Amino acid sequence: MRLDKFLKLSRLIKRRTVAKDVSEQGRVWVNGREAKPSSTVKVGDELKIQFGQKLVTVRVELLSESTRKDDAAKMFTLLGEEPIKRESDSIL
């Protein structure tokens, strides 16, 4: 399944166009590699997504071509959330 479609169906990102834009900006990694919107996502892959000043890590658990809102959370497991340190913070 395409990365942008997975992000939208799993409701990690609300809209597919936003998921595409985030991927094109280099803010999504699949298994440690920067990913494009068309990158293929498989069950077991680890995704890291930068949301503003937060880095979210999830593992893909289920791929489904369509999903209901209640079932979207079953598509991934949240592995962690960590704040991103700005360079100006480390100088002080």
UniProtKB/TrEMBL annotation:
UniProt KW Protein biosynthesis keyword: yes
Pfam families: S4 (PF01479)
Family stated for the protein in its record: Belongs to the RqcP family.
Function: Key component of the ribosome quality control system (RQC), a ribosome-associated complex that mediates the extraction of incompletely synthesized nascent chains from stalled ribosomes and their subsequent degradation. RqcH recruits Ala-charged tRNA, and with RqcP directs the elongation of stalled nascent chains on 50S ribosomal subunits, leading to non-templated C-terminal alanine extensions (Ala tail). The Ala tail promotes nascent chain degradation. RqcP is associated with the translocation-like movement of the peptidyl-tRNA from the A-site into the P-site.
UniProtKB keywords: Protein biosynthesis, RNA-binding, rRNA-binding, tRNA-binding
Quaternary structure (record): Associates with stalled 50S ribosomal subunits. Binds to RqcH, 23S rRNA and the P-site tRNA. Does not require RqcH for association with 50S subunits.
A GO biological-process term: rescue of stalled ribosome
Limits of the RNA-binding S4 domain: 1-63
A GO MF label: ribosomal large subunit binding
Residue intervals passing through the bilayer: none
InterPro entries (alphabetical): RqcP, S4_RNA-bd, S4_RNA-bd_sf
Gene3D superfamilies cross-referenced by the UniProt entry: RNA-binding S4 domain
Name the record gives this protein: RQC P-site tRNA stabilizing factor
